Amino acid sequence: MNTSCIIRGMGHCVPDTKLTNADFERMVETNDEWITSRTGIRERRVALNGETCVDLCFGASQNALKSAGIKAEELTHVLVATFSPDAVIPSASCMLSHRLGIAGRMSMDVSAACSGFLYGLETARALIALHPEAKVLLACCDIVSSRVDYTDRSTCVLFGDGAGAVVITAEAPGLAGARVLDVMVASDGAMGDLLTVKGGGSGTPYKLGDTIRRDFFVEMNGREVYKHAVRAMSGICAELLKKHGLTRDDVDVFIPHQANLRIVEAVGKRLEIPEEKVFTNLQKYGNTSAASVPLALSEAVAEGAIKPGNLVLLGTFGGGFTWGSGLIKF
């Protein structure tokens, strides 16, 4: 049984503090022209005032609930997609549920790095198929700054912090919202060592008094990640369109993972989607990992870049490797 579901509301939340390219000129050997020309990023928001993953999830969730016209106590499931929760235990989703003032619901974290939103959306669709009465909150957030080595110029300029959230229910007559037509997700663990944050995991144990090692921070083979990201993201987007008998001409807005401008442009070119149909906000936020796609989706709606009747194509790629695509009809 395929139960259709709709996004009833969405919202986003970012820290107040901005870190500009000029700031990085004082931190590492780089400059604004080098960063902008290679990544398209001009500034990013960072949690330097003590904001946590749950703090930003809570802000984004409040905005999504308000947009949906749903009270927190109506929620039946709370999902959080992140690789940087406040703690290992309790989960970010349990902490978020508590912040929202609810208990007794299913709360679960989803770990798929930058692909967290689409993995979470697919999970929400499955929950609604089993429980058509469900009202699911999906919040996606990463405090990437907590896992960035600010002496490594090859990675530190790429990332920022942020959160995006959506409220999802089954489709029903008279209910307004964006219809989730389909989601496809995939993975390949053989590529995992190309993009990692290993330190602190059970595979790299440590004991009291140990110094923090380099592997506690994002380590990435940028050239290889670029190649796999472009190939995987464009491939699964094309596959999803073909599955539904659609072409690039049917797509009104394309929202790819906001990794860097070179990847975004390469994926758009492979899919032959015109530049004016590709929504980007990475120039303001950098790569916010799991928050990337929902933050861009929420902002695109708020800015009027997405209009009623538009078909929106989503694409993502993240560590693991994980990747995915989604189709949403507004």
Walkthrough of the structure:
With 330 residues, the protein is an alpha+beta fold. The chain folds into two domains: 5-177, 3-Layer(aba) Sandwich (Peroxisomal Thiolase, Chain A, domain 1); 179-329, Peroxisomal Thiolase, Chain A, domain 1, CATH 3.40.47. Helices cover 32% and strands 24% of the residues. The protein contains ten helices and 13 strands. It has helices spanning 21-25, 32-39, 53-68, 92-99, 116-130, 153-156, 222-243, 261-271, 282-285, 292-302, and strands at residues 5-13, 18-20, 43-45, 77-81, 106-110, 135-143, 161-170, 178-187, 195-196, 219-220, 253-256, 311-318, 322-329. The strands form three sheets. A nine-stranded mixed beta sheet has the order 5-4-6-7-1-8-13-12-11, sandwiched between helices. Strands 2-3 form a two-stranded antiparallel sheet. α4 links the parallel β4 and β5. α3 packs across α4 (92-99) and α7 (222-243) packs parallel to α8. The radius of gyration is 19 Å and the shape is globular. It starts with a strand and ends with a strand. The mean pLDDT is 96.
Please describe the structure with a list of short key phrases separated by commas or semicolons.
alpha+beta; nine-stranded mixed sheet; two-stranded antiparallel ribbon; 2 domains; Peroxisomal Thiolase, Chain A, domain 1; 330 residues
Distance N terminus to C terminus? 23 Å
Gross morphology = globular
CATH C-level class of the largest domain: Alpha Beta
The CATH architecture term of the largest domain is 3-Layer(aba) Sandwich
Spatial strand arrangement across the major sheet: 5-4-6-7-1-8-13-12-11
Extended strand count: 13
